[in-house]
Structures are given as C-alpha cells and as structure tokens.
Write a structure and sequence with these properties.
The complex is a heterodimer of chains A (75) and B (258). With 75 residues, chain A is of the alpha+beta class. Chain A contains two helices and four strands, in the order E-H-E-E-H-E. Chain B is an alpha/beta fold. Chain B has a single domain, classed as Thiamin diphosphate (ThDP)-binding fold, Pyr/PP domains (Rossmann fold), CATH 3.40.50. The termini of chain B are far apart. The chains are: A alpha+beta (75), B alpha/beta (258). The interface between A and B is large, with 35 and 39 residues. Strand 4 of chain A pairs antiparallel with strand 1 of chain B.
Chain lengths: 75, 258
C-alpha cells in the first residue's frame, strides 16, 4: 500500500504562538516550543515529525501563513 | 522505508502548501490567532489562482484591517470609515473591467457604514463585499458593536448586552440577502481547516459571479477577536463555535439561479 509521508516547516521567527495549528493537527505532529522566538512567542514546531501526513490543515488555518507543507508518496 | 529523511521530503517538487505569492513578507500586525490573517491568506490565494492580480482594486476599511494593503500585493484604495462600498461603487463605475472588492469589519460595515452597505447592495453594484464579523470593535479596545451578541460582555457593556436598552444584534447578511441587487450572500468562518476551504470555495464562486456581472456578492466571515474577548485564540475559537454560530448560522443565504 502506498504510504504518504509529510513534513512541515515553520517559520519560527514569524510565528505568534497562537496554537491554532496545534489544535487543528489530526496527527499531533505540532506542539508549542518551551523556548521563545525573538518576539517572546512560544513558537509552533514539529514535535513528532514522523507522524505528519502532509494534510496541510495546519498551514491553511495559520493566520500568519508561516507554515509550509511538503508531502511524498512512498511505495 | 525508514531511510526517508526530513531533508528528502523538503524538496520543491513535494511542495503541498505554501503561503500565496501575493502575500508580502511583512509580518502582520494582527494579534496571535486573529481570523483576519487567515482571511487575507485565503483571499490572496484566490486572487492568485484566478489570475486577478493585475486587475484587482481592493478597498480597505477603517478598523483592524486598515493596513491590509501592506500584506496583499494588489492595488488598494483607502476609504473613510464605513464608506468602502461607496468608494468601490465609484471605482467599479469608472473602471468596469476591474475586479473590485471591499474588506470590512462589523463596526465599519454594520454601524457607521450601514447606509452605504444597504444602498450599494440595493443598487446591485458589481463588487464583492467581504464582511469580517467578530461581534466587537477590535481595534479601539473591544467596545460593543451592532453585531455583539445579547448578553455578551464588552468594554462598553461590562454586564453584558442588555437587549431592552441596547437593541438586538444585527444579521447583516440576512438583511442584504432580502435586497434585489445582491446575487450571492453567504456566511462562512475561518477557524477550522474545513471552514477555510469552504470560504475559499465561496470566494471563487463570488469571483465567477463578478466576472459574469450578476450583482453584489456579500460574504460574511464569522471571526474571533481573542484580545477583545479576553481569551486565548483556542478558547476564542471554541467560544465562537458555541455562541456565535448558533446566532449566525454558517452557510449560503442567497444563491443565484443557474
């Protein structure tokens, strides 16, 4: 069976840490970092990158458009 | 299978979603989690996909989205408070080939600009009106707006909106749907991925109706205001689903006959 694997790249410097992507993610890939960016926001990052399916739900709800999604079909 | 690394996936040919090219690199001034940013992104995507960049004129309102022209790379005109539909009428009549849209909040469209809104829709000007309804005056500090829900607290109704003294909230989309000039009236949201995709479809439909010059298109977006409502973005989205959506039900209100 073909398997789909995705990857998200977050522009952590522009992220405002609103957490909307974390709630939307169906595979619990994203989480808020304990560290902060230069503006003091707990930015979002791929905490479990191996679970990402590349559905791009996080990217379409991101108010600041900081998430880019890639997807690859394996097998 | 296990040897596929992160760097193997991150290649231009595997790109699935990227912010629209029409969005500039400026960091948006909106509060974290604000629906304005999402609505801007979707609008820019639609303008890009429909190849409208060269012939679009947007009308920015007064309100939080007043600096919208910094974020979307199309031509813009700045209107006086509430007068965006009047300015859009002028732009469209002088340059009928342009795609003209207004982007307004509830204080702009439903309070100070009610007359312009209703008469523009009644005349059936060929413009697209995008109405961001967050039930509050966001920019000036969370005062009560005409769309504030009954019992909802704001900085000028600290005990909740008292309908007997302050009137009932206005459903602008339902009002303009009754006018003969509007061709497409719908109410959408941008808090979930599904909502965003539906909003994008609605925008594409509106662009099609504008190209066919069928009258005014009116898209209301029920949005959140985490700062004005004094909640976190996630809480505000939840509150919106529980309180705003029952009063402002999502879906098409007026669809033209094919």
């Amino acid at each position: 069976m073909a398997k789909i694997k995705g990857a998200v790249v977050v522009d952590t410097e522009k992220c405002k840490g609103c957490e909307v992507c974390v709630v939307t993610c169906p595979s619990q890939t994203l989480a808020l970092a304990t560290e902060v960016n230069s503006k003091g926001y707990h930015y979002s990052y791929a905490a479990n990158p191996e679970t990402c399916t590349g559905c791009s739900n996080c990217a379409v709800v991101c108010p600041d458009g900081v998430i880019t999604v890639y997807k690859i079909k394996i097998g | 299978m296990a040897d596929i690394t992160f760097n193997d996936i991150i290649k231009p040919e595997n790109l699935t979603y990227k912010k629209s090219k029409l969005m500039t690199d400026n960091v948006m001034h909106y509060c974290p989690g604000c629906g304005h940013g999402t609505a801007h992104n979707v609008l820019a995507e639609v303008l890009e996909e429909e190849n409208l960049q060269e012939r679009t004129v947007g009308i920015t309102p007064v309100g939080c989205s007043v600096l919208m022209y910094n974020y979307i790379d199309v031509d813009f005109q700045e209107a006086a408070h509430g007068r965006a539909p009047a300015l859009a009428t002028a732009v469209k009549r002088l340059m009928p080939d342009k795609f003209v849209f207004t982007y307004q909040g509830d204080g702009d469209l439903a309070a100070i600009g009610t007359a312009e809104t209703i008469h523009t829709c009644n005349r059936g000007e060929n413009i697209l009106m995008i109405f961001i309804n967050n039930g509050i005056y966001g920019m000036t500090g969370g005062q009560m707006a005409p769309t504030t829900l009954a019992g909802m607290k704001s900085s000028t109704s600290p005990y909740g909106r008292d309908v007997s003294k302050m009137g009932s909230p206005i459903k602008m989309a339902n009002i303009v749907a009754m006018l003969p000039g509007t061709c497409y009236v719908t109410r959408q949201s941008v808090n979930t991925a599904g909502g965003v995709r539906k909003f994008k479809k609605a925008l594409k439909k509106a662009v099609q109706y504008q190209n066919e010059k069928r009258g005014t298109c009116f898209i209301e977006v029920v949005s959140n205001c985490p700062s004005g409502w004094k909640m976190t973005p996630v809480e505000s989205n939840k509150w919106m689903e529980e309180n705003m959506f029952p009063f402002y039900p999502l879906g098409d209100i007026k669809v033209p006959a094919e």
